[in-house]
Amino acid sequence: MKTNESAEKKQTTQASEKKATPKKNTALTGAVTGENVHFQQTAQKTLDKGVADITKAAKTYSNNDPASQAGFVAEADHIATFNIRKVLGRSKIRAEKTPNGTHGDYKIVKGKKILVEGEIKYHGTAEKTENAMRGYDGQQRVGPADQSEEIIEIAKRKAMKNQTTRPDVSKEHGEVASNAGDCITDGKTKSTPRTSKEVKGQAKKASKGDVSHKDILPPFGESVKIAAKSGAKTGGLIGGGIGLVTSGASNTKAYRNGEKSGEEAMIDTAKETAVATVDGAVKGAVGSVASVGGKQLASRITNRLGKKILGGSGPAVVAIGAIEIGKHAVNLSRGKIDENEFSEKSATTVMTSGGAWAGAVAGAFALSWLGPVGTTIGAIGGGIAGTMGMEAALSA
Questions:
Q1: Beta pairing class for 113-120 and 140-142
Q2: Following DSSP, what letter does each residue of 108-157 receive, concatenated?
Q3: For 384, phi and psi rounded to 5 degrees?
Q4: What is the pLDDT of residues 262-309, one digit of tens each?
Q5: CB-based contacts of 291, cutoff 8 Å, min separation 6
Q6: How many whole angstroms separate alpha carbon 248 and alpha carbon 24?
Q7: Rounded to whole angstroms, how far apart are CA atoms 330 and 326?
Q8: Is 301 in a helix, a strand, or coil?
Q9: CA atoms of 22 and 31, how far apart (whole Å)
């Protein structure tokens, strides 16, 4: 009698788990897809703004001498290259240009909190650049990468020389020596260092309107590494949250129905949440790499259709969907499903991934009036709704 009860209990538990799993997988795929769509939209806006700001600086100061024009272009370039790295890392910290005549050329902020302020100086020689960097208290000083080491040596030498006779001047040079560098940074992320020649070349291109996303994006390997790391972290958090909610609910129900003991329910919830966390992390990382990879490839080709496809959200959706198709393929090879089931499940995955993308775009737009938080929530919620809606339509 006990054996029969145990068998029935096991069958009931397995049935409830099978029923809950698709919902959890569908929600997770939709949520991670939605987050990746939002991630790519944010990257697109950041890159577009960076190109626009660099171009504007070059054209606004086109009548200045080349060194002066290069200095203004350098400001926009450092801000743009810093910000795209923050976006790839899914950070809320941003660099902003401060209005002329105010404290510093730029500031690094998190919301309304100012974290760093600094000056950017690009002059013809290290001597001139170092001298221009004096008198800015404890601010960062950013100069050409090819002058950086010499600027610090000059500043140290002049600080020592004036230590006794002109202590105020000595202090100014000492501050340059302590705060000078070749990039803007918050201690974790750096902008792209540029030599005087590189910035002048950037200014020349920008004057013609030829600056593009590839001039701002970090090197391909660096971009992928940053995006994969942040995608895995975010996907893991999403997966863990969804796994905890869905598994917790199903296991609590199983406990109340007497199908599992309290200990079994807790252990199973922990296991299923861990699996969902890993699943989310993998999907988040792969989707982010596909997003960035698509953008990088799009910036290197001339075909308009190719640019549109690779520059859109498609690569991320395809990559995340491919993970699910890979799971179906494994089950096919192990004999858990037949070829018809494999075809059906794979087709459903492709369609639901498309539904996630469409839902994410619509959701982000619908809540865009709430600002960045609204677009994020809208994209994730829309991704889940789009995936589940498409799955429901296909199974109807």
A1: parallel
A2: EEETTEEEEEEEE---SSHHHHHHHT-S-TT-EEE--TTTHHHHHHHHHH
A3: -65, -50
A4: 888 888 888 888 888 888 888 888 888 888 888 887 777 777 777 777
A5: 36, 39, 40, 43, 227, 313, 315, 316
A6: 11
A7: 6
A8: coil
A9: 14
Q: What's the Cα-to-Cα distance from 65 to each of 61, 97, 141, 353, rounded to whole Å?
A: 9, 21, 22, 53
Neighbours of 325 (CB within 10 A): 17
Tell me: pLDDT of 373 over 80. Answer: no
Measured CA to CA, the distance from residue 343 to residue 365 in angstroms comes to 34
Strand order in the sheet with 180-181: 93-97, 106-110, 113-120, 140-142, 180-181
By CB atoms closer than 10 A (0-12, 13-18, 19+), residue 372 is: exposed
Q: What is the pLDDT of residues 6-36, one digit of tens each?
A: 444 444 444 444 444 456 677 888 888 888 8
Residue 255 near residue 265 (C-beta atoms within 8 A): yes
Average pLDDT over residues 82-98: 96
Residue 127 CB: number of other CB atoms within 10 A? Answer: 14
- The winner for highest mean pLDDT among 48-52, 224-228, 257-261 is 48-52
Terminal C-alpha separation, the chain: 40
Average pLDDT, the chain: 84
Q: What phi and psi, each to the nearest 5 degrees, are found at residue 140?
A: -65, 150
pTM: 0.83
- Fill in the amino acid letter for 304: R
The candidate with the shortest Cα–Cα distance to 46, out of 72, 98, 82, is 82
> Pairing mode, if any, of strands 180-181 and 140-142?
parallel
Q: Which amino acid is at 80?
A: A
Distance of CA 366 to the CA centre of its chain: 22
Give yes or no for a contact between 181 and 159, defined as CB atoms under 8 angstroms apart. Answer: no
Residue closest to 73 by CA, chosen among 181, 218, 203: 203
Considering only the C-alpha atoms of the chain, give the largest distance between any 2 of them, rounded to a whole number of Å: 100
Tell me the C-alpha distance between 13 and 144, whole Å.
66
What are the pLDDT digits (tens) for 93-137?
A: 999 998 865 678 999 999 999 999 999 999 989 999 999 999 988
| Rounded Cα–Cα distance for residues 293 and 223 (Å) | 8
Secondary structure letter of residue 214 according to DSSP? G
